[in-house]
Amino acid sequence: MNFPSSVKIVEVGPRDGLQNEKQPIAVADKVALVNALSNAGLKFIEAGSFVNPKWVPQMAGSEEVFAGIARKAGVSYAALTPNMVGFERAIAAGADEVAIFAAASEAFSQKNINCSIEESIERFAPILTAARAQNIPVRGYVSCIAGCPYEGDIAPSKVAEVSDILFQAGCYEISLGDTIGTGTPANIERVIELTNKKVPLEKLALHAHDTYGQAIANIYRAFQMGVSVFDSSVAGLGGCPYAKGASGNVATEDVIYLLNGLGIAHGVDLQAVITAGKNICASLGRVSQSKVARALSSEKPGNCT
């Protein structure tokens, strides 16, 4: 089987992971997490979101996070930017790249950002123009590629349509987000097949959530098809504050374990990521959702069958 020889892991824990936590999160804890992840070898880290803290209070203090991290050469520190105000804040804070987002579901777009899909993309036009002028890379997210909490199943053709619009508008990479984790290898395959007719395969990423326990299977199928960029979140942190019941992103530890088993290069230290996950979970008062981290950190098992 012709797997890609290496994989790019986009670590979204400090942004997509933490944004769904219930309690306020100290800037120092966020900074420590970003530093631990970069020290583990991750080269692409979403370090924060420049959204109004009224809507996502856990992302308050993103300026302080970017100011406090120990930047490493060769690491791209990214920020989610929902509008021009957010973009300007991100650039002033020193973000290396920014991300914008649209949905493949009209209902989700209305619930998430109070506008239609078409209106959401129009809102991002000034960001793309400004980013080009300043040579800032822009990554595009497409949410709800398999299912929507309000509409149900989503047509793969709609995912391809929205992905094409973002790519043609100037996004260097399109991350396909299974926001509520309903995807299975069969429909993820169909989404990738149709989207690849519009967007080159090397410009696609998969952003898998593990609500139904399908994330690793979906990643493996995408990998078989030639996708070589995967988003993941340390300790499986995350979810979606606008999608009821959506559990966390696929755990970075679990993705690394899969890649290690396949002998695929990724450049990340698994044990260091496990430690980073353990530390942020201790700060949050919760347990890691990574099956690999829990297995490798557990005591010796007793008798079992």
UniProtKB/TrEMBL annotation:
Residues 7-274 form the Pyruvate carboxyltransferase domain. NCBIfam families: PRK05692.1 (NF004283). PROSITE patterns: HMG_COA_LYASE, PYR_CT. GO terms for molecular function: lyase activity. It comes from the Bacteria. Its EC number is 4.1.3.4. It holds the Pfam family HMGL-like. It comes from Simiduia curdlanivorans. Pathway: Metabolic intermediate metabolism; (S)-3-hydroxy-3-methylglutaryl-CoA degradation; acetoacetate from (S)-3-hydroxy-3-methylglutaryl-CoA: step 1/1. This is hydroxymethylglutaryl-CoA lyase.
